[in-house]
Amino acid sequence: MIGGSLNRMSAYYKHYLSFHKSHWLLTLAFSLSAILLFAQQSSIDSLTSRLQKSPKDTAHVYFLCELSKKFLTYRPPLSQQYAAEALQLSRKINFKRGEMLALNRLGEYEFRQSNYARSVEFSTQSLSLAEELHDSLAMANVYRVLGNTNTLGFKQYDKALRYQLQALAIYEKKKDMRSIASLYGNVTWIYAITNQYLEKAHQLARRGAQIADSLGIDQLLSYNYNSQGLIFMQEGQLDSALFYLDKSNEIGKRIMDRSLNSYNNRIKGSIYLLKKDYKKAEESFINAENESRELNSREVLKESYGGLAKTYEALGNYPLAYRYHKKFTELKDSLVNWEITQKAMMMEYELDEQNRMVKIAELEKSALL
Q1: SS3 307
Q2: Which of 268, 286, 226 is nearest to 251 (CA)?
């Protein structure tokens, strides 16, 4: 009887320790997240304060571009506002490097808003200035944006891969490890989406994660975890895919990268559909829907609608299935029309660019004569 009491006390003590250990770990996780959020907000506050105090000179442009970058993933309108202001000021004071940076920021903003032709227009203007300034790193940054635009926008994967590999070659030559880690995530996305070179994709994603971890750059670590999740999904290893997407999401929440979280949740929803875990699929797609709507990320929003339509059909909730199928169809048709418009704008832009180059060549020729 005494032995039974001791066993019960021992079990209770173990449960007590287990509970308090879990509670302590949870408290620690929240504390670390709060510290990171405070550090990020402090960085933004510091930049904003320095911006307000600085005269309208080159330093002011740099502050504007840096703030634009920081707000890109969770407050896009503010990011665009700072980049546009940087562009205007750079042109006013004839600061070409600032103009190049601001155009690059605007190119990335327009890409994330699905304005692909505008993104290419800003990016190629930035590229021209980078070439003029002989800034190979800036050229690589533009190639990265053009690669992303052709991956998720125009879905021209061969062209996208060519741009990303051009950027990677420059980063490797410069030994820019931060950018290398970022590019590994971009390249593996293309491999995963096209379902090719998956073993190579795994190697690059793992290496990208290792570099990001060694540098202590959470955002790049989360991107490479996202890639690993997508690769495992393509291979049918669904539990491994969820493991890495959850790791990516955990970091994304901590660093307030809402764009990344919306991608992750959309992919998770698709995985739960494959696993026939419809409640978790519903939860994931709803999270992706809410996040992508706030960010105006229409591709993710469309896929979320489609996923919810399939989920509610599987659950036998046909009214909701019909409602989301209708939303999916309407947005899909809208995006198809938008894509046609974007491609028409691209053709017009490329034609204007060709005509401009011909005129320049003619002027140079006449000057030589």
Answers
A1: helix
A2: 226
Rounded to whole angstroms, what are the CA distances from 92 to 65, 96, 97, 264, 279?
16, 10, 13, 41, 55
Own/partner pairs for 124-129, CB < 8 Å, 24+ apart?
A: 124/353, 126/100, 126/101, 129/96, 129/97, 129/99, 129/100, 129/103
Q: Is 128 exposed, middle or buried (0-12, 13-18, 19+ CB in 10 A)?
A: middle
Contacts with 89 (C-beta within 8 Å, 6 or more apart), sequence order: 56, 60, 61, 64, 95, 98
Query: Nearest-CA neighbor of 96 among 69, 120, 61?
Result: 61
What is the pLDDT at residue 285?
Answer: 97
Task: Specify the higher pLDDT residue, 63 or 306.
Answer: 306
Say whether pLDDT at 358 is over 70. no
- The pLDDT tens digits for 124-167 are 899 899 989 999 999 999 999 999 988 887 888 999 999 999 99
pLDDT of residue 95: 96
Q: Rounded to whole angstroms, how far apart are CA atoms 247 and 266?
A: 15
**Rounded to an integer, what distance in angstroms lies between the CA atom of residue 126 and that of residue 139?**
8
* Cα angle value 190/150/177 (rounded, 5°): 60
- Closest by Cα among 323, 319, 283 to 306: 323
Residue 120's nearest CA partner among 353, 300, 340 is 353
Cα–Cα distance for residue pair 45/170, rounded to 1 Å: 33
CA gap 140, 100 in Å, rounded? 13
Contacts for 327 with CB less than 8 Å, ≥ 6 apart? 305, 309
